[in-house]
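[job 4471] stage=fold_predict status=RUNNING
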Amino acid sequence: MKALITGASGDIGSAIAKKFLSCGYEVVGIDVAPAALKDEHYIHYIADVTGALPDVTDVNVLITAAGVQSEGMDSIDVNLKGVIRTVEKYAFKPAIRAVVNVASASARTGSEFPIYTASKGGVVTYTKNLALRLAPYGATANTLSPGGVMTSSNDPVIKDEKLFSEALAESLLGKWAEPEEIAEWAYFLAAVNKSMTGEDVLVDNGEAIKSNFVWPK
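[job 4471] inference complete, writing structure tokens
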């Protein structure tokens, strides 16, 4: 079985890649950065989801984890248009079994940068349309929407003791998820799940119930 993962050098993407490798998959990673891991069953392409994408055949599982967390229009270009370009290139082939697009809790709450939330909300809606079109292939399509995750992109909050305390207070469980936990969810949705499609799975420690956005002023 072959899994293709975009954003494979990022904290969440690399955790997902490691999870699939540990479960016996051949993994192909795509990222603008060099490979974050080495394994005989891992192939890495340096490419931008907004540009030319490599030709990869016989993809069984596609996971789009490439993304930017910003206030600018690049959120739309990478987070939404990049997902669409990637999925339309790789998903509609006989071998496909599952697509998981990594969205965000902010797609539900709207509690983040305006353009960023729009980009992730678009991913959720696009994936519902994708589920309709992938059904004839016998494949599922779902979004995975993390809340706070312990990644380097969230360092502006994590490394500020006061802000991080405020952010943790916004979750019911008083913590953020680790990338490895998000990877477990991605694996479940893509490899274990056979019957749920067109849905958004929220993994946010209960943040959405409060949904205040904490970030440096």
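[job 4471] summary: Residues 125 and 157 are 29 Å apart (CA to CA).
[job 4471] exit 0
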